[in-house]
Amino acid sequence: MANPQALAIQKTGFHGKDMGFAFGIVVILSILFLPIPAFLIDVGLAFSIAFSVLILMVALWIRRPLDFSSFPTILLIATMMRLSLNIATTRVILSEGHLGPDAAGQVIGGFSQMVMSGDFVIGVIVFLILVTVNFIVITKGATRIAEVGARFTLDAIPGKQMAIDADLSAGMIDDKQAHDRRRELEMESSFFGSMDGASKFVRGDAIAGLLITGINMFGGVIIGYARHDMQIGEAADVFVRLSVGDGLVSQIPALIVSLAAGLLVSRGGQLGSTDEAVIDQLGGYPRALFAASGLLFLLALMPGLPFFPFMILGAGMAFGSWIIPRQRDQKARAEAQEVHRSEQEEKDKEKDSVKSILKTAEIELVLGKQVATKLLGSHEELAFRVAKMRKKFATQYGFVVPEIKVTDDISIKDKSYHIRIHGTTVAANDLRVGELLVVLAGTHRPSLPGDEIREPAFGLPALSVPESFGEDLKREGFQPIDNVSVVLTHLSEVIRNNLPQLLSYKDMKILIDRLDPEYRKLADEICTSHLTYSGFQAVLKLLLAERVSIRNLHLILEAVAELAPHVRKTEQIVEHVRIRMAQQLCGDIARNGQLNVLRLGNRWDLAFHQALKRDPKGEIIEFDIDPRMLEEFSEEATKVIREHMDKGVPFVLVTSPDSRPYVRMIVERIFATLPVLSHVEIAKGIEIKLLGSIS
Fold first, then answer.
1. What is the pLDDT of residue 4?
2. Domain termination site, one of 480, 498, 516
3. Do 258 and 196 fall within a single domain?
4. Cα angle: 581, vertex 586, 587; to 5 degrees
5. Where among 438, 470, 498 does a domain terminate?
6. CATH number of the domain that 555 lies in?
7. Is the residue at 530 inside a domain?
8. How many helices (H) and strands (E) does the chain have?
9. Residues 96 and 202 in one domain
10. Beta bridge partner(s), residue 429
11. Rounded distance between C-alpha atoms, residue 490 and residue 508, angstroms
12. From start to end of 246-392, where are the E strands?
């Protein structure tokens, strides 16, 4: 019972306002049948004029029509007030009109004297003109606009409702915003429907004013002649003057309210006050003002036409056509500066915020002081080569690697650089600034002095030579590598080794969304019925871990769809995908259609096969090999693989399908870039060249 009490207490705050409004309505109704003195009639007529002007001003300055949603109600009240005052003035004119022009009050007498200039014929003409303007022009036009506005508003409601539901379903708005928009839609339809009916009030008020004035003139002349023994001319002069004055006093507020109604319904869906909508649009075309000023100057020079009015107006429009573009440009510059300042403040705020501190770059190249001076001095070249490298990765591996952030840091050594993945340093190296790197292959060495070092990307033996000997190195047949190339080659290799970490869930979704609709549907079917999107991401990561390109994503989806309903283990799915991608695997490694193969010998094939432990169903559950045998295999494999790598010929290591993942796991710790294939992953039709075996 607490809620009703609260509501009752809340309502008492408005008791005085409610009673005052109700009392005003009762006063308007009482005027219809109670005689009132002329003084109160003057007060009522003055209030009617002031009330109509207030309505017009509000209609001018509201931002949108719905801000004045109570206009139909106010229009009804204003119309009823004018009609009750008309009845009151009619009662006074017919009963007291024979006493003189001030018998119906000073307001009617003053209007009759001021507007008619003492001649009732002039008053009749002015009154007829006002009625014509109000009834035929303003009222009829506003009525038509209100009808059309209501019709189109009601027709548009279903579409607007569907748009709100679509935005809500898409997550663009929340429930509260949807409720507010629906509420606004209801108010809009109710408002325009009410305006359609309220326009009839305005039209009926104009007709009633005309009829009341005519009745007053005709009835006053008859009453003056028959009851007060006035001559026909005298009675006509007095009663016509009073009737026309009364008509003018009532029609002027009616005209003002009709104008307000016309302004309100003609606004449509425009935002902003009427002066903004009209003046800004009229003055928004300086060339139009200039053309109009030219016409006025021409009319000023025409013989027989007044010079100064046309010349003054022409000069004003010409000045407007000159000043408006400059004001607009100044305003645009001010707004641009304000936007720039706001953006800068937002950036500074974000830079200093805790959120920005916690946010880490996915790939970051951190340079020491001297390295930064050397590399960032050729900033454009560095940015170009980094962009080219990202494009190469996208072409080669099928997805775009994240942006590479290049920064300097005084906390690291001046001549060193760090490569960070997700904020963690995964590689670092000391760079010999101002020197060239020459990779040593074979026994051929440069005759120039230099220090023997290791190339950072692949660990190859190299010679560091001062830059001044660059041309000498080229004459001896060597290809010197500058500092930028050394850093970018190292960065590129680090990115290759960390491709699985760089493939985010978002990147995977983007790749799927770029597929044809049929394959997007297939992906949705797989990831909802048999596998999750995260599981599919794990498949792609395992492929990238062995530097297998995922550019043929449709083929990967088909392969996953074949095995996912039957197998849940990601590693098994990946092995099946690799078999389906055999053509691509061999094509990326082969040179001139020839695949160089290093085979795993029978001894080690048997050893790895025996190390595989299976369950009763035949599924591999464990890999258990003697550590001494594992050490022996590592030594022997390192010796054989290194021997073939020194020859500079690309090759693959081939083993049995079951043991391939485990052989790869061992070999990648020594030779991370060496591809390991199974026998079933060798594509048909490819030429195989056997280099030897690890036995």
1. 40
2. 498
3. yes
4. 95
5. 498
6. 3.40.50.12790
7. yes
8. 27, 13
9. yes
10. 417
11. 26
12. 363-367
In angstroms, rounded to a whole number, what is the distance separating the alpha carbons of residues 24 and 22? 5
Query: Which tokens belong to 88?
Result: 């009151």
Detail the DSSP E strand segments found in 151-288: none
N- to C-terminal Cα separation, the chain: 92
Does residue 367 share a domain with residue 315?
A: no
Domain match, 461 and 338 both = no
- Domain total of the chain: 4
Q: At 380, which CATH number?
A: 3.40.30.60
On whether both 602 and 614 belong to a single domain, the answer is yes
Q: Which two three-digit tokens encode residue 596?
A: 């160089």
Amino acid 638 reads T
Q: How far apart are CA 53 and CA 44, in angstroms?
A: 14
pLDDT of residue 456: 86
Instruction: Show the domain range for 427.
Output: 363-498
Taking the C-alpha atoms of residue 60 and residue 691, their distance in angstroms, rounded to an integer, is 92
Q: How is residue 96 written in tokens?
A: 């007291």
Provide the pLDDT confidence category of residue 641 given band limits of 50, 70 and 90: confident
pLDDT tens-digit map of 530-582: 888 888 889 999 998 888 889 889 999 999 988 888 887 888 888 889 998 88
Rounded CA-CA distance 89/74 in Å is 22
Write phi, then psi, for 596 (nearest 5 degrees).
Answer: -85, 125
Nearest Cα neighbor of 273 from 283, 264, 285 is: 264
Same domain, 618 and 534: yes
CA distance 429 to 365: 12
Among 71, 51, 50, 199, which residue's Cα sits nearest to residue 138? Answer: 199
Token duo for residue 271: 């935002």
Structure tokens at 412: 């690291």
* Domain assignment of residue 280, yes or no: no
**In-domain check, residue 2:** no
Give a yes or no: residue 90 inside a domain.
yes
Give the predicted TM-score (pTM) of the model.
0.53
Residues 51, 28: Cα–Cα separation, whole Å: 14
CB neighbour class for 453 (10 Å; exposed up to 12, middle 13-18, buried from 19)? middle
Q: Are residues 555 and 681 in the same domain?
A: yes
If asked whether residues 510 and 488 sit together in one domain, one would say: no
What's the pLDDT score for residue 247? 75
**Residues 543, 574: contact at Cβ < 8 Å?**
yes
Quote the CA–CA distance of 543 and 152 in Å, as a whole number. 59
Residue 626, CB-side half-sphere exposure with 13 Å CA sphere: 7
